[in-house]
Amino acid sequence: MSAAKPVRPAAPAKLGASEAKPSHLAALGVYGFDAVEPVVLAALVTEDPLLLVGNSGTGKTFLLNTLSEALGLEHRHYNASLIAFDDLVGFPYPDAERGGVKFLETPATVWGAESVLIDEISRCKPEHQNRLFSLVHERRIQGIALPKLRFRWAAMNPCSADQGGAEDYAGSEALDPALADRFALFVRAADWAELSAEERMKIAAPAGEGKVADDGGQLRAQIEVWRARFLAEVEHCPEQILVYVTTAVTALNGAGIRISPRRSRLMARSLLAASLAAGGPADRLFRRILDASLPQPCWGVTPGAEAVAAAHRAAWDVAGATAHRWLHAFMVEDRLAHKLGILLDECDSPDSGSQAIAQLLATEAPERAAAFAYAVYPAAALGSLPIGAEGVNDLGKLASPLLAVEGEVSWSERLHEKNTQHPEIARYAQVMAPLKGGRLERARQLFNAFMVQKLVPADPAAVEAAVHACVALLKKRGLA
Question: FRET partner for 335 with CA separation of 20 to 30 A, picked from 41, 178, 211, 214?
Answer without folding.
Answer: 41
